[in-house]
Write a structure and sequence with these properties.
Low-confidence stretches: none
Mean pLDDT: 85
Order of helices and strands: HHH
Helix content: 55-70%
Distance between the termini: 23 Å
Structural class: mainly alpha
Largest sheet: none
């Protein structure tokens, strides 16, 4: 995502974060929340950001490991 050692490509990074998010990776889900709210690497879409926030919270309740407040 930050381009350490390679050229930064936020669009490609978001594809990988979405893949990880679909496999219930909580940190990746929260990255997508911020990405969609800010339009970083994806088209700005608050509805999708909210979707990922809700999904991350649901997964957090099922498997508590850490929490992040973004609302």
């Amino acid at each position: 995502y930050h381009g350490h050692g390679v050229e930064r490509d936020a669009v490609e990074a978001m594809k990988w974060f979405e893949r990880a998010s679909n496999q219930e990776h909580q940190l990746a889900q929260f990255v997508l929340v911020f990405a969609y709210h800010n339009g970083d690497g994806v088209e700005k879409d608050s509805n999708k950001g909210e979707k990922w926030y809700d999904k991350a919270q649901d997964d957090l309740e099922e498997r508590p490991s850490f929490g992040v407040a973004v609302r």
